[in-house]
Amino acid sequence: MATLEGPPTNLPVPQNHINFVPTKAGETFKLGPITVRIMEDGSHTDNRLGAAEFIVPPRTAGPPPHWHEMHDETFLVTRGKLRFSTTGHMEAKDIDALAGDYVTVPIRAPHTFANPFDEEARFFNTFTPAFYVNYFKLLSDLADGGPVTPQISGTAMASYATITVPLS
């Protein structure tokens, strides 16, 4: 009978470090009324993973319906309620996600989100690969403290393989 052995014990211990982002740390910026706090910009994960927290005030629209050609996203609602909408080739559908609910958006899944409700909402967003964090930074730079217009969104989306769902 063969015996199973554990992992080799003669391997050197890796020297990678963890990254800790305290509650009040992380790069922050505005996308119109929405506040974004970058938690991981990809610099600690060889750009395999990016993550950010979004604070969405009450009665705030999100981005135009769109899909991504090159990255996946996840959304963990951490406070309040958000409405996620699917459009395009699928039957249109609204999902009201509460704190603790989790939404996965794979590549090429048309979607958007909004906070049409009367309380602030927050969500933790991941994107892989991490380069998409630069989309949010570009969007903020283009808006320059003002509203994020459809033209600004279109310019930023075109730079990051993100396609707006055509109006029907």
UniProtKB/TrEMBL annotation:
<dbReference type="InterPro" id="IPR011051">
    <property type="entry name" value="RmlC_Cupin_sf"/>
</dbReference>
<dbReference type="InterPro" id="IPR053146">
    <property type="entry name" value="QDO-like"/>
</dbReference>
<dbReference type="Pfam" id="PF07883">
    <property type="entry name" value="Cupin_2"/>
</dbReference>
<dbReference type="InterPro" id="IPR013096">
    <property type="entry name" value="Cupin_2"/>
</dbReference>
<feature type="domain" description="Cupin type-2">
    <location>
        <begin position="54"/>
        <end position="125"/>
    </location>
</feature>
<protein>
    <recommendedName>
        <fullName>Cupin type-2 domain-containing protein</fullName>
    </recommendedName>
</protein>
<dbReference type="InterPro" id="IPR014710">
    <property type="entry name" value="RmlC-like_jellyroll"/>
</dbReference>
